[in-house]
Structures are given as C-alpha cells and as structure tokens.
Amino acid sequence: MVEDFLKISRKKIPYPIREPLRKYLRQYARERTLPISYSELLDYQESVPLIDPTGKDTLWETAIYPAYACDRIHQGLKKIYAMLKAGGDFKVQEHLFIDRIDYCSFGNTHPFRIKIVNRYNEVYDYFYLKVADASRIYGLELEHLLSPNQLNFLTHDNTLVEEHIAGIPGDVFAAQYLSRPEFNPKRIAKDFVKFNERCLAGLLGDMRAYNFVFVITPDFDDYQFRIRPIDFDQQFYEGNVRMYQPQFFKENNSFVQLALQHFNTQVMQQYQQEERALIVQRMRSERVRLAGLRDALRKDDVAPPEKLEELKNSLAAHYQDPRFLRCACTVDIIELSLKRLIIRRRAA
To answer: d(Cα 157, Cα 178) in Å, to the nearest integer?
Structure first.
C-alpha cells in the first residue's frame, strides 16, 4: 500500500564537513584543491529561465557572468572536469568548452549544473557544483561502497563536485516508458523491489520517482533495468522508517502496482534476500573503507537529535528489534541496520 502523507523535511540545513570526514575524504582522494568554488559561481550578473523543448519551465535558470570573469570561471570549470574525469590530466580540456552554467534554487544544495562540450564531435556531458553537505557525502559514499553503482565526486572547503548520473528520471519512465511492449514489466518490478531493499538497508530517504533514474541495458534476449538514486540529501535524516522505503511514496505507485501484479510474497522475498546477500558481499570486500567511514560518522552530527530518536523507535518497531532503542547516535543505527543483513544471511 502506498501512503500519501509522508512529509519530507524541506528546510534541512547543510551540515559542514568536519575534520574526521575530511581526513577520510583525503585518504581516498575525494578531497582536492579546486580552482573554482561554489561560492564563486554565485556571483553571476543575471539569469534567464531554462525552458525545455516542450516549452515547460525546468525550474533551472541559466547564469550569465560578466565578461571579465567568464574566461577564468570557464577555465576553472574545465580543470575541475579534468580532475573529476581524467585524473587531473589537463591536456584533455584543450578541446572542451563550457556551453552553459545552470542554477537551481529548488532543493537543499542549490546546485549549479555545468554543460561541457567536446568541440570536435559536439558530444556533451554534465557535472555539478553544490554546497558541501556532510550527510549527502555520507550518502554518496555509502552508495559507492554498498550498491552496484560507482560514484565519482570531489570536495574542497564548502564545495561538492559530482558527476552526472545518466538515466531516465523515474517519473518520466513511468509516464513514457513503462508500458512499452518491448520492455518486460517483471524485470522493471524486480529491480524496484531490490532498490527498495537497498534504500532501507542503507537508510537513504526520499526516493520518489523524480529522485532516481532508470538505466536501460539491452541484453542478448531482453532489456535489463537498474534504478540509480540521484538525490542523497535525506541520507539517514528522517525519523519515519517509511521515508526509507520507496514503496510508500505515491509518486512510485505505478512501480508498486507492477510488483504486486507480477510477484507473490515468496518471489519478493527471494529478490530481497538476493539484494541483501549482495550488500553483505560488498560490505566484506570494502570492510576497511567502511570502518574508516564509520569512525568519521561516529564523530559527526548529521541529523537533529529528535529525528534520531524517532528513527530508532521507528526501526525498532519495524524490525521488532529492541536493539535499535539502545542506539546512541547515527552510526549505531546505520551499523545495526547493516549488521542485521549478515545475521539474516547466516540464518538463511
């Protein structure tokens, strides 16, 4: 059943990167000195609304910078792209140019989206500069370590740089792709069940349809689907356990109905257990890095105390596991959530 009364905390403040997390990011080459900061991009002269090909307002606006600053900003952004994509080899930037810098005031991190183009073949790519929010960074890192998806990002001071995650937004997929005859609905539903399980285990919240994308891969006899989150602002921030289960958002109702239509309880449990087993495998292979991330989080503050109290009570009731009530901080909650996967797998 899908609930329509879940309320997301829209006024969440960004949490600064503290030294324990900064040390972790330096250790794994996430922290780099950047030539352009997020705050510098805020100094645009004017902006114009960005309209999509159908004439609809995208809620993004294209920033226009004064002539004296434009070349420095563009050169700096090209260097950042080389650092993000080419290991800092600046030779690759010689044939690239910045086509557009868009700003979005909607959302917690108020991102800038950079469109960069290869002048030889006009192939383009995007990347983002955002306010560095520690809770979002924990979400990005957990997704990188525990999911099948690799993520590339950089930080420096108050700036977070993220690569673009390509795919079809979930709301667009539901409206325009879900009923295509060449797509097997069971495969779509299967990945939604697995995605739901990953979000709950890792406590990634607010996964409504427009906060994740579908990646479609043609196979030799069918199409494969993978759902990838693109918004990590609500990483273990909300208190209601249903916030971490995409099945309970009305925006995802079409995917929920697809699963209910094609799967019985036993099949859903099979897919859930498969995903738990994969997460456990990743936990074991990344145990050293996860331990470093855990140690940084133990010294950090990324959610209000009242929400942590609500979350541990909500998880205790959901799992019927009183151990959650004894959790003293965020790291205790996420660690217990992940350890339960190992216990379940042993029991199976």
So the answer is: 42
Give DSSP secondary structure letters for 72-134: HHHHHHHHHHHHHHSTT-GGGGTTEEEEEEEE--SSSS--EEEEEEETTT--EEEEEEEE--H
Q: How far apart are CA 342 and CA 125, in angstroms?
A: 39
209's CB contacts (< 8 A; 6+ apart) are 169, 170, 171, 173, 174, 249, 251, 252, 255
Using alpha carbons, list the distances in angstroms from residue 318 to 202, 267, 325. Answer: 15, 21, 12
* Encoded tokens for 109: 């991190």
Q: CB-based contacts of 184: which residues, under 8 Å, 6+ apart? A: 222, 223
Yes or no: say if 20 and 248 are a contact pair by the CB < 8 Å rule. no
Closest by CA to 166, choosing from 228, 73, 116, 258, is: 228
* Domain boundary assignment for the chain: 19-132+153-163, 168-347
Contact (CB, 8 A) for 314 and 239: yes
Tens digits of per-residue pLDDT, 207-229? 999 999 999 999 888 999 999 99
| Whole-angstrom Cα Rg for the chain | 21
161-186 confidence digits (pLDDT tens): 999 999 999 999 999 999 999 999 99
Contact yes or no for 242/2 (Cβ under 8 A)? no
Residue 134 near residue 18, CB atoms below 8 Å: yes
Q: What is the pTM of this model?
A: 0.93
Query: For residue 179, how far is the Cα from the chain centroid?
Result: 26
Residues 231/235/241/245 CA torsion (nearest 10 deg): 30
For tokens 């890095």, name the residue.
289
Name the residue with tokens 């900003």: 73
